[in-house]
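Please annotate this fold before class:
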Amino acid sequence: MKTDLQIAQEAVMEPIGKVAEKLGIREDDLELYGKYKAKLSDGYLKSLRDKPDGKLILVTAINPTPAGEGKTTTSVGLGQAFGKLGKKAVVALREPSLGPCFGIKGGAAGGGYAQVVPMEELNLHFTGDFHAITSANNLLAALLDNHIQQGNELQIDSRQIIWKRCMDMNDRVLRNIVVGLGSKADGFVREDHFVITVASEIMAILCLAEDMKDLKERLSRIIVAYNYAGQPVTAGDLQAVGSMAALLKDAMKPNLIQTLEHTPVLVHGGPFANIAHGCNSVRATKAAMKMADYCITEAGFGADLGAEKFFDIKCRIGDLKPDAVVLVATIRALKYNGGRKKDDLGAEDLEALAKGIENLEKHIENLQKYGVPVVVTLNSFVTDTEAEIGFVRAFCEERRCEFALSEVWAKGGEGGIRLAEKVLKTLEAGQNAFRLLYEDDLSLEDKIRTVAKEIYGAGSVSFSAAAARQLQKLTELGFGQLPVCMAKNQYSLSDNPKLLGRPRDFEMTVREVYVSAGAGFVVALTGDVMTMPGLSKRPSAFGIDVNEDGVITGLF
């Protein structure tokens, strides 16, 4: 059996200009990055403003397991299936982070015959967007420390610096560090921290900004520290906005590439969903909706994280209204949730399936709370039995969900036609009544409780003493109207990654709260979730190489 990388390397890609022609994009509207990648020009994006919006379809999934779910694979395959049916569709995805690519999760280009290409370039440096975001973030950090060194006119309290440096790699030893060691000219000695680039506020800002004007306004609102009087000090106060915007100028432009079947794909931005808001850029999503009749986008990890943040943060801030949701599951993952061991998921086990399907049930219930119609799809594996498929089908139909089997990994767009037809049927029914989970004027504490209880299934929420103080201070500073971005482990509906299936009435712990004032949300860290991941004992980096012909191997 061919690997995903081999399939991608054997693909015959069309020049990106030819892909763009299908959407009526002229060569002058593209900024080329080689033969198969391009950015959309600002002029082209402005020309889309008066065009009607196409339908917005969100692809999400159950909680991730080692058995795999295939959310990106399904998104790509669904876009290809729309093409097979003669429908004009654009897929809008996130850019992959180098952290998981060299860590344990791998890349994010889809799989099998439902992939985005060029796969190696997408998973590695791509068009340099993440490097630009990292540079802008660390420029602000350097300007902050330099300001303190050069006399500290803003009276910054070095014990209350909250801005962190970042890099797009898993590096646990950088979570907590000491900087400024050496001579007087080397700065003040203080504790500092790193986050992974995809969890940085600059990444969130880039993904939520409408244009350059909005980007600069958001950058100016970033809180980097507090002064001795306890008042916020911002990036605007440090006169950092113009230079940061200069670094981000090209990164603001969405990237155009293609699927294996030459379906257009916009790939832009990549915040993690377990520690950030988990969606591609508002700019790319809105552009895709103008460029085609259907925009297919995804939200990271399970629906409890990605979909909730897509709805309550991205749709709220970007004024978006999704028309349908595709919820991805696999029989293997459901049986894993039901207690079956990873190495024994190929055998039929209706008992484990019946137990594990509670995870799917909870995600269906959660999505229905937003008033958006749900289509459940099973990402097919050869070990799935008719009895198991029939069990899931009946389960979904009893809960008023359309159901379709997806075979896009093995068959590409052809394997997604049944799913595409169900999505089209759902869209034609027009039963969308989208609503948010909570209102802006709810307190920050109650917003956190609402998400924890309604979406995760928690019985109660406990706040550490530090979190309680932070919530009070943020409310006093006027940030109480903002939505909340919950940072939680992705493997469980709870804040305990070992509680699989559908845990009920557990206590969720919020240990820290801080504001991303530029992005426009308040982050709540729960359980033991980290904003800078670490590498496993045998990271994926061990298996990646380049042969004598310059061909990359081991990338997935």
User: Anything to note?
Assistant: The chain has a mean pLDDT of 95. The chain is about 35% helix and 20% strand.
